[in-house]
Amino acid sequence: MDVTSDHPLFAALRPEAREAPESGIVEVFNYGRGRPGLIPMWAGEGDLPTPDFIYEAAVRSLRDGETFYTAQRGIPELRAALARYHERTYGRSFVEERFFVTGGGMQAIQIAARMVAGPGDEVLVPTPAWPNITAAIAINGAAPVEVPLSFGNDGWTLDLDRLFAAATGRTKGIFINSPSNPTGWTATADELRAILAFARTRGLFIIADEVYHRFYYAGARAPSFHDVAEPEDRILYVNTFSKNWAMTGWRIGWLSTSPALGQTIENLVQYSTSGVATFMQRAATVALDEGDPFLNLQVDRARTGRDIVCAGLARSGRARVSEPAGAFYLFFAVDGEDDTRALALRLVDEANIGLAPGTAFGTAGNGFMRLCFASRPERIEEATGRLVAWLRKG
Ligand SMILES: Cc1ncc(COP(=O)(O)O)c(C=O)c1O
After folding, report:
1. How far is residue 124 from each of residues 132, 192, 391, measured CA to CA in Å?
2. What is the pLDDT of residue 285?
3. Residue 32's CB: how many other CB atoms inside 10 A?
4. Distance from Cα 174 to the centre of ligand 1, integer Å
5. Backbone torsions φ then ψ of 379, nearest 5 degrees
């Protein structure tokens, strides 16, 4: 039974729990779920299942009886593989003590938010942003302060002066998701440097959500705080196996930061999930060590999907589109359609495609729609065709 908002049990809850928002993406998903022939592009995941070489490592681990309580910070083999992956990716050295295995990127965000801000505190969040970010901050009693990006001829941009001006005496952190879900906005190294300089001056933490670091279309990876920061800077890096290695359903990710915070992170893991199952960590280790060809394939498919959908929408004459530099979403506006929640529901009924309404990503997302293009090209072609035909009719 659902507990509704006028139920006395609901009224008795802590306000932070009571006010946790329902995801606006899930609303459309529930509306369209199960429609025959519908092409779903609302979720943040590709269409490929986890490859055999990854899941077989999990099966082997289970067969070997690795079914006991696990290391709270992560098994040593996985932490060492994370250090190797970072060395390869960022071209500098990393000690394995910097890495902490979490229940997905989501738990990494939750732990980072808990470490940084509580009741009375504020965290700056450029928006439109993935709704789980602001919700994770608010559920701790802290206030997410939205700083809107602008959408213009150069695509999505963040005005750094506006970001810095939003900081008050209560600000404890800045959440930077680059490349961004949903806009694809990707900070330049200079922008990251400026944000870091500001955070250092004010003593703020940066939560650096770089889960789309490899989904970047102008190079092998996006610019990262790892390029500009020192190991002891106040930065909590959030990352995940979900996107790179098609493991969204596994729920495994990682947090990285100074080893000085290791005991605190271990405690926060202990008192929430008590760690990620060892068999999943075995699979994640293999993903890092042997998963580059699969990851490259995924990025190539996303690039193709992006090109198909951008070209299609440009031809429609009704969409305001800017090619995203990173991540795997197109966040676009449709002329004459301001109520994008209603538009998302109509597209389910009238075009048989599932998109997420921009309203789900904060007020700065009003008037926009999010479409995930990490899928096989034929499917993206078909979905783009349906969308463009619908736009031309309207
Ligand atoms: C910006 C961002 N951060 C973190 C995550 C968390 O991913 P997961 O919890 O699946 O690892 C997502 C997933 O969509 C995301 O878009």
Report:
1. 14, 15, 36
2. 98
3. 21
4. 17
5. -70, -40
pTM of the model: 0.96
Query: In this predicted model, what pLDDT tens digit does every residue of 46-67 receive, in sequence order?
Result: 999 999 999 999 999 999 999 9
Ligand 1 geometric centre to CA of 103 (Å): 11
Q: Can the peptide bond before residue 182 be classed as cis, meaning omega within 30 degrees of 0?
A: yes
44 Cβ below 6 A of ligand 1:
yes
Name the residue with tokens 């790179």: 244
Question: Of all residues in the chain, what percent carry a pLDDT higher than 70?
Answer: 99
Per DSSP, 366 falls in state: T
The residue nearest atom 5 of ligand 1, judged by CA position, is 105
Rounded to whole angstroms, the Cα distance separating 257 from 353 reads 40
- The identity of residue 309, as a single letter, is V
Q: In this structure, which residue's CA is closest to atom 6 in ligand 1? A: 105
Q: Show Cβ contacts of residue 72 under 8 Å, excluding neighbours closer than 6 positions.
A: 266, 269, 270, 274, 275
Task: Choose the residue to mutate in 133, 242, 370 for probing ligand 1, maximizing ligand atoms within 8 Å of C-beta.
Answer: 242
Q: Residue 104 Cα, ligand 1 centroid: separation in angstroms? A: 7
Measure 207 CA to ligand 1 centroid, in angstroms. 13
Q: At what angle do helices 377-393 and 292-316 cross, to 10 degrees?
A: 20
Nearest to 30, CA basis, from 385, 38, 340: 38
Q: Tell me, what DSSP letter sits at residue 324? A: -
Q: Residue 378 in contact with residue 302, Cβ under 8 Å? A: no
DSSP H/E element including 311: helix 292-316
3-class SS at 107?
Answer: helix
- Residue 3 pLDDT > 60, yes or no? no
In the chain, the domains with their CATH numbers are: 22-50+293-393 (3.90.1150.10), 52-290 (3.40.640.10)
- Banded model confidence at residue 2, pLDDT cuts 50, 70, 90: low
Q: Quote the distance between the C-alpha of residue 255 and its chain's center.
A: 13
The finding on whether 107 has its CB within 6 A of some atom of ligand 1 is: no
Residue with tokens 């505190």: 121
Spacing, Cα 115 to ligand 1 middle (Å): 19
| pLDDT score at 16 | 87
**Cβ within 8 Å of residue 9, ≥6 positions away:** 3
